[in-house]
Design goal:
Largest sheet of chain A: none
Strand order of the largest sheet of chain B: 5-6-7-3-8-9
CATH topology of chain B: Rossmann fold
Helix content of chain B: 25-40%
Order of helices and strands of chain B: EHEEHEEHHHEHEHEEH
Shape of chain B: globular
Largest interface: A-B, 55 and 73 residues
Radius of gyration of chain B: 21 Å
CATH architecture of chain B: 3-Layer(aba) Sandwich
Number of strands of chain A: 1
Shape of chain A: elongated
Distance between the termini of chain B: 18 Å
Number of helices of chain A: 13
Number of domains of chain B: 1
Order of helices and strands of chain A: HEHHHHHHHHHHHH
Strand content of chain A: under 5%
Radius of gyration of chain A: 26 Å
Number of domains of chain A: 1
Structural class of chain B: alpha/beta
Oligomer: heterodimer
Largest sheet of chain B: 6 strands, mixed
């Protein structure tokens, strides 16, 4: 069948019909694809290429987080005021229960600052994980509609939590100042502490985002896991005081807990009475190690299932 | 079952050019897992006994949407995809776009295919304006490109014809308005392999004319165009080849007239 004899159909006919025998006949689909340089659709790109694509979407990630934060409280009458009210009310409730009723304040100087710092820092990790679980599963519409590196989603959601934390930080600083702390240079240490914690949170959010995309029950289970984690992280009590008479390994286990590490660092930065002698040994090293380990590990773990996130 | 072999009239789009494949679909099966679709009451005791007996949840249904479809699309083709509702048309397009991973089989594509669908869900709690910006950024445009094209996208969608609706959250839009905005966002970009999923059917007459014109423009730039539609006229107008899917299987693949004739006979 020669192609020349058939060009009389004024170009509008039957292009899709079977081909004249060509050199391509007899090639398997994969050989044909290889010959013309076609790639598998939706295949996971290499890690370097994936990172490059993700970097290309940095504005999307940033704008997505900003827009979502702005839209968060549009249904509430007090609107954006809730960004400040939520952490304040949280702090009030925990103060009432743990400070006044149960009395874990014993032996802690400036308990209010101690408690509020612990709550705000833990809430940062907690909300990152909670939004991470739903980051893929809750945005299937967007994921199925448009093509972009899926890691954008958990990263955008942790960025949202970072923006929320900035709000909380104003409240936190106000409370800490009211309890009689005096700002000094050590307050700047809060910045590296929060950066390492954010990297840790992002890695963790990517891990739970992948798990949550497969196990839909995880979103139900997560609040309980997180509450257990909170009660073992020394948010409303001093690990040092609690473990004064406990075996040494208990102390080490509680101290190496990443949430406790980041809480310790924030307290050390903001509260004068928390001195470096009260910090567990190598606490900065643990902070960086957790950030690198979970940040990089979580990223790779998430990337490994990139091609599967569209499947609901 | 008339499959392509019977086509003596076959002609490559440009006789001088070799046929260059742009999309190869090789024995693809696609399975959806749907949660909460079961008929059971889903009581706690039932869930517990399922766990204990290690039986799969009846609430998880596997929907085998595409069953072993194979075809090859070439550069310069416009391919219509027809079939009754639920025959797997949109599913196969989503798989070609790489948005839905096949259960088995492979799909090879030239570059990144783009899917213009009416079902492309955007973010309902955000304003139309934010959706335009986020959609553009997600498709890989730069901030400048989005800013440049913003007005064009809004004008094209016609959202602001009846007042300043673009600054309202998308949840307040009528379904037609939302569909128009989605299409306008997606159509703002140039595409290699372009797939249009019933996008022609949305919106009013004026919008349809605008979108048809835009699709012709896009076709000129695209290597291959796929069009899903229930409107046989628009398939006849735009496509030179038609693939007919039914119950997830490829029933027929050939020149437009022939396949549509068979399809119309079937549906009568």
């Amino acid at each position: 069948m020669s192609t020349v004899s058939e060009t009389t159909h004024n170009g509008a006919v039957a292009v899709g019909a079977p081909p004249a025998p060509t050199a391509d006949d007899g090639l398997s689909p994969s050989q044909l694809a290889a010959k013309y340089g076609l790639s598998v659709s939706g295949a996971r790109p290499g890690l370097a290429e994936y990172t490059r694509q993700l970097w290309g979407r940095r504005h999307f990630i940033n704008e997505f987080a900003k827009a979502r934060t702005a839209a968060q409280y549009t249904q509430a009458r007090l609107g954006q005021l809730w960004q400040v009210m939520t952490p304040l009310l949280n702090a009030a409730v925990y103060y009432l229960i743990f400070g006044v009723l149960i009395g874990t304040r014993k032996g802690v100087d400036n308990f209010i600052a101690f408690l509020v710092t612990g709550i705000f820092i833990f809430t940062f990790t907690q909300t990152s994980v909670l939004s991470g679980v739903r980051a893929v599963a809750g945005n299937l519409g967007l994921i199925r509609a448009l093509h972009f590196p899926r890691a954008s989603m958990p990263i955008a959601f942790t960025l949202m939590q970072l923006q929320q934390l900035m709000m909380s930080m104003f409240v936190l600083v106000a409370i800490v100042l009211m309890t009689g702390e005096v700002p000094d240079a050590s307050w700047l240490l809060i910045i590296p502490a929060l950066i390492t914690q954010w990297i840790f949170n992002t890695g963790l959010a990517m891990i739970v985002a992948r798990l949550g995309s497969k196990m839909t029950d995880l979103a139900q289970l997560m609040p309980f896991i997180l509450r257990t984690w909170m009660y073992t992280s020394g948010v409303m009590y001093s690990i040092e005081n609690l473990t004064a008479h406990a075996p040494h390994y208990v102390r080490i286990l509680l101290d190496i807990n990443p949430a406790a590490v980041y809480i310790d660092l924030a307290r050390f930065a903001l509260i004068d009475s928390v001195t470096s002698s009260q910090l567990p040994p190598h606490v900065w090293i643990s902070a960086v190690a957790w950030a690198v380990l979970v940040g990089v590990g979580g990223y790779i773990y998430f990337w490994k299932a990139e091609e599967q996130y569209g499947r609901g | 079952m008339a499959v392509a072999e019977q086509q003596p009239l076959a002609t490559p789009p440009k006789a001088a050019e070799a046929r260059v494949p742009t999309v190869i679909v090789d024995d693809v099966h696609i399975v959806y897992k749907v949660y909460g679709a079961g008929t059971g009451k889903g009581s706690a005791t039932a869930a517990l006994s399922r766990l204990l007996l290690r039986r799969g949840s009846p609430n998880v249904r596997r929907v085998h949407a595409v069953r072993g479809v194979s075809f090859t699309a070439y550069r310069g083709e416009a391919i219509g995809i027809i079939g009754s509702n639920g025959s797997g048309k949109s599913t196969i397009l989503r798989a070609i776009a790489g948005l839905l991973p096949p259960e088995s089989g492979k799909i090879y594509t030239d570059g990144q295919p783009s899917l213009l669908g009416v079902n492309a869900a955007l973010m309902n709690d955000l304003t139309g304006a934010t959706n335009v910006m986020l959609g553009g950024l997600a498709m890989g445009m730069t901030q400048e490109e989005v800013r440049e094209r913003y007005q064009g996208i809004v004008d094209f969608s016609g959202i602001n014809e009846k007042g300043d609706f673009i600054s309202l959250p998308m949840r307040t839009y009528s379904s037609g308005m939302a569909a128009r905005l989605r299409f306008s966002i997606a159509a703002a970009k140039n595409h290699d392999v372009l797939m249009i999923d019933e996008a022609l059917a949305t919106g009013d007459r004026a919008f349809q004319r605008r979108s048809e014109a835009r699709i012709r423009e896009l076709r000129k730039e695209a290597g291959t165009v796929f069009l899903v539609s229930h409107n046989n006229t628009s398939i006849r107008d735009t496509c030179d080849r038609v693939v007919w899917l039914e119950k997830g299987e490829l029933l027929m693949d050939g020149p437009t007239d022939e396949v549509i004739k068979a399809y119309e006979k079937h549906t009568k």
